[in-house]
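Researcher: Dear colleague, please comment on this protein.
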Amino acid sequence: EPSERPEIDLSPEDVAKMTYGEFNAALDSACQEDDFAKYRALWEYIWVVRKDNQAFDEALLADGGIKHLKYAFRHSDSTWREAGVRVCRTFFHNQEAREKLV
Protein backbone atom coordinates (compact mmCIF):
# COMPACT_ATOMS: atom_id res chain seq x y z
CA GLU A 1 0.00 0.00 0.00
CA PRO A 2 1.18 3.56 -0.57
CA SER A 3 3.30 4.89 2.25
CA GLU A 4 2.53 8.47 1.32
CA ARG A 5 0.47 10.08 -1.41
CA PRO A 6 2.76 11.48 -4.12
CA GLU A 7 1.76 14.55 -6.08
CA ILE A 8 0.50 13.09 -9.34
CA ASP A 9 -2.55 13.72 -11.49
CA LEU A 10 -4.13 10.33 -10.73
CA SER A 11 -5.83 9.06 -7.60
CA PRO A 12 -5.46 5.50 -6.31
CA GLU A 13 -9.05 4.93 -7.39
CA ASP A 14 -8.32 6.14 -10.94
CA VAL A 15 -5.35 3.81 -11.23
CA ALA A 16 -7.26 0.83 -9.80
CA LYS A 17 -9.90 1.27 -12.55
CA MET A 18 -7.31 1.23 -15.37
CA THR A 19 -7.09 -1.62 -17.84
CA TYR A 20 -3.65 -3.14 -18.27
CA GLY A 21 -3.31 -1.18 -21.53
CA GLU A 22 -4.13 2.13 -19.84
CA PHE A 23 -1.77 1.31 -17.00
CA ASN A 24 0.99 0.45 -19.45
CA ALA A 25 0.42 3.76 -21.26
CA ALA A 26 0.61 5.65 -17.95
CA LEU A 27 3.89 3.87 -17.13
CA ASP A 28 5.21 4.73 -20.58
CA SER A 29 4.41 8.39 -19.94
CA ALA A 30 6.15 8.30 -16.54
CA CYS A 31 9.27 6.77 -18.08
CA GLN A 32 9.35 9.15 -21.05
CA GLU A 33 9.01 12.11 -18.69
CA ASP A 34 11.50 10.55 -16.24
CA ASP A 35 8.88 11.18 -13.56
CA PHE A 36 9.86 8.99 -10.63
CA ALA A 37 6.99 10.10 -8.37
CA LYS A 38 4.44 9.10 -10.99
CA TYR A 39 6.19 5.79 -11.71
CA ARG A 40 6.30 4.85 -8.04
CA ALA A 41 2.72 5.95 -7.39
CA LEU A 42 1.39 3.99 -10.35
CA TRP A 43 2.93 0.77 -9.04
CA GLU A 44 1.77 1.45 -5.49
CA TYR A 45 -1.78 2.28 -6.55
CA ILE A 46 -2.17 -0.71 -8.89
CA TRP A 47 -1.20 -3.17 -6.17
CA VAL A 48 -4.84 -3.60 -5.06
CA VAL A 49 -5.59 -4.90 -8.57
CA ARG A 50 -2.43 -6.99 -9.01
CA LYS A 51 -2.23 -8.75 -5.65
CA ASP A 52 -5.06 -11.18 -6.39
CA ASN A 53 -5.10 -11.02 -10.18
CA GLN A 54 -2.27 -12.83 -11.96
CA ALA A 55 -4.14 -12.37 -15.25
CA PHE A 56 -3.55 -8.61 -14.98
CA ASP A 57 0.20 -9.21 -14.67
CA GLU A 58 0.19 -11.62 -17.59
CA ALA A 59 -1.69 -9.16 -19.79
CA LEU A 60 0.61 -6.33 -18.70
CA LEU A 61 3.68 -8.38 -19.61
CA ALA A 62 2.14 -9.45 -22.93
CA ASP A 63 1.53 -5.77 -23.70
CA GLY A 64 5.24 -4.94 -23.30
CA GLY A 65 5.27 -4.00 -19.63
CA ILE A 66 8.73 -5.52 -19.16
CA LYS A 67 10.30 -2.48 -20.83
CA HIS A 68 9.07 -0.22 -18.01
CA LEU A 69 10.53 -2.53 -15.39
CA LYS A 70 13.86 -2.62 -17.20
CA TYR A 71 13.82 1.16 -17.62
CA ALA A 72 13.69 1.58 -13.86
CA PHE A 73 16.20 -1.02 -12.75
CA ARG A 74 18.71 0.07 -15.41
CA HIS A 75 18.30 3.79 -14.67
CA SER A 76 21.38 5.83 -13.79
CA ASP A 77 19.67 7.13 -10.62
CA SER A 78 19.85 4.68 -7.73
CA THR A 79 16.38 5.69 -6.50
CA TRP A 80 14.91 4.52 -9.79
CA ARG A 81 16.98 1.33 -9.71
CA GLU A 82 15.82 0.47 -6.20
CA ALA A 83 12.18 1.00 -7.13
CA GLY A 84 12.65 -1.04 -10.30
CA VAL A 85 14.10 -3.97 -8.39
CA ARG A 86 11.30 -3.84 -5.82
CA VAL A 87 8.62 -3.90 -8.52
CA CYS A 88 10.41 -6.64 -10.48
CA ARG A 89 10.39 -8.87 -7.43
CA THR A 90 6.57 -8.72 -7.40
CA PHE A 91 6.58 -10.38 -10.84
CA PHE A 92 8.69 -13.41 -9.93
CA HIS A 93 5.57 -15.56 -9.60
CA ASN A 94 5.43 -15.38 -13.41
CA GLN A 95 7.85 -17.72 -15.22
CA GLU A 96 8.16 -15.48 -18.30
CA ALA A 97 8.96 -12.46 -16.15
CA ARG A 98 11.55 -14.38 -14.14
CA GLU A 99 13.30 -15.42 -17.34
CA LYS A 100 13.26 -11.93 -18.85
CA LEU A 101 14.27 -10.11 -15.67
CA VAL A 102 17.19 -12.30 -14.59
In short: The chain has seven helices and no strands. The longest helix spans residues 36-50.
